[in-house]
Amino acid sequence: MEMSMSAQSKKIHPHKFAMWVALASIVMLFAGLTSAFIVKSSQAGWQDIETPSLFLYSTIVILVSSVTVQMAVRAHKQREMTRYRLYITVTAFLGALFVALQFFGFKGLWTQGITFRSSISGSFLYVIIGLHALHVLGGVIALIVMFARAFSRKTRTYSSVGIEVVSTYWHFVDLLWIYLVIFFTLIK
Amino acid sequence: MSHEAVMHAHAAVGHEEHHGHHHHESFISKYIFSQDHKMISKQFLFTGIVWAILGGLMSVLFRLQLGYPNETFPILEDLLGKWAKGGKIQPEFYYALVTMHGTVLVFFVLTAGLSGTFSNLLIPLQCGARDMASPFLNMLSYWFFFAASIVMISSFFVETGAASGGWTSYPPLSAIGDFSEGSKAGMDCWLISMALFIVSSLLGGLNYIATILNMRTKGLSMTKLPLTIWAFFFTAVLGVLSFPVLLSGAILLLFDRHLGTSFYLSDVFVSKTQTALPNEGGSAILYQHLFWFLGHPEVYIILLPAMGMASEIISTNSRKPIFGYMAMVGSLFAICILAFLVWAHHMFVTGLNPFLGAAFVLLTLLIAVPSAIKVFNWLTTLWKGNIRFTPAMLFAIGFVSLFISGGLTGIYLGNSALDYQLHDTYFVVAHFHIVMGVASMFGMFAGIYHWFPKMYGRYLNHTLGYIHFWVTMIGAYMIFWPMHYQGLAGAPRRYYDISNWHFLKGFDGLNQFISTVALIVFATQILFVFNYFFSMFRGRKLKNPNPWGSNTLEWTTPINPGHGNWPGEIPEVHRWAYDYSKDGREFIPQTEPIGAGESGHH
Description:
Chain A is mainly α. Chain A has helices at residues 2-10, 14-41, 54-77, 81-111, 120-151, 161-186.
């Protein structure tokens, strides 16, 4: 038993690995959509859209949240649970703020007359950035679950695998957003 | 960090022991919301069988229309009501049947029913793991599939009927409700069901990959894996990378249907309501790209598990090592890569640039190389083998036969010049039914006959198995072989009644023949279902835990393994899975250490 265990512990934890595979899958979802965007943007009747300036603030928010989630992981490993809880709360809050900023950015676009009916480029923007926001919301829910677990008196967990998996996901949606910002700036 | 990892490993081991020794499971946790991979695999198989019966029944119904377009069958009106008014399948219903037959067989039977069943059953058992990487996600995977099934079935009961735009659901037909009855609520059910299905298959797939790469037992390096596991691995990789693209296509279609976007629509005039739609700038071809980027890998998602199981079964029952193990793995890998690079060969007639088309022709024909390697290796494994013709072995050999005959017509269709003539004819129908549909069904049957003893501790009835094999084998060729001629003559697929055209009049008798054989083959599948459920409770009991004399790990478990699979320690692996007829011994299990003076494989 000891032998097989030590063989097991040298490898990456299966849950972490499963998360990496899931990330590959999400990459394909956005690769499909952004390549559709590229193809469409080279066709006639395409109308360029300025991304709302509010997105600059949301970019800063999500970058900061990546730092706080990393600090949460560190705090968990050092068994400083008060700090850990603080950091995951801050991260979840920043995530929610990010989604709210995206929503208001969209609202601004919509009032400028860029609606589903009026422009394909706008529709693409709504669908792609909307799907990204949904993924961020999924991360917020995961953080709320981690938060509830950290306060549960019934189960005490010493394994940091859970928070590490969540932080991997969080960094990923952050990176994905940076990619989308660069993408929408370059492909006009 | 390493300290915590060890702590976690301890916790995991404690958990496993719990499963090994106690059996205080309630009915619900054991049979319904089970997290045991073996039970989940049975759930997938049960649901798959129900879907296979429904999907088969649909084909029988539309074959009645195709074979006997001028007859009426009053009993159909009693059963189906307005969909068979006057005892004749109505056109809307005919298109719904064709669409749902394709969707059900491709996704619900040959993806979920095949991969879901055998990846779940065999990955932990043949890798020497207690369960999947995440048993909870695995359970969710089944229940998302179940939800998808419920939504898909319910689409038959909405007033306007099930989706009827073909299993590919091309817009604009699928995007605008005014175009056909099936494009109304039925199409929404189809899209929602497919979205749920995609989630199910992603959850399953990432579990399969993580388990194969991270949870193999001691000594089981990747090159000692049975070919079944390699096939399931590449299948899961294909699914995880291609299904999300279909999801993105489906999301855009939902937006076009309900929120007024124009991703796929441009300059549409609806003659029924005499209105021009305001949508501008969209492109229906975009949907085809997104669809076929999944659609082509999907073909291999269906086929690879059957290939893996056929390799394992043929080697075991020839009592010979598999010929060219590394070539088998390499060709699976090559197929997996090429599967992503050939999707536009479904779109030669969409106005695709002929130069681009030529590139896709080349890549498509390249798939013939790994396919031929696999066929060669199966045949050379059989060559001079000490063959035991069990029902599983017959189905595995039948799989090879169908893969050859169906694969050869693929070379015709892969050429864009020939495809201009053959596109959307019965030639295509014949090709993919033989190479993908029936061949994979044969792989699935082979798997069921071979691993049924592992699932239930009993054998399936062999006599019924032989009847099942021969009728299905001969029947499949009698159904699909003539379709090649119809297709070459120009008979278009999906049409409600081809006898309206003078140049196709000569096919009346042939169509009746095909329909009659289809009915007989369908009845034989019911015989198999009877065999399955009868043998589950009354079949001959297993005495020997290793009934086929196999080398792989699943046969080292007890006859009816509990949750956790091995009561004691997980066995260690010392050799590859194919040491048959070596050094004068019939088979040497993977758990046996390499003897002194014995040369290991590789």
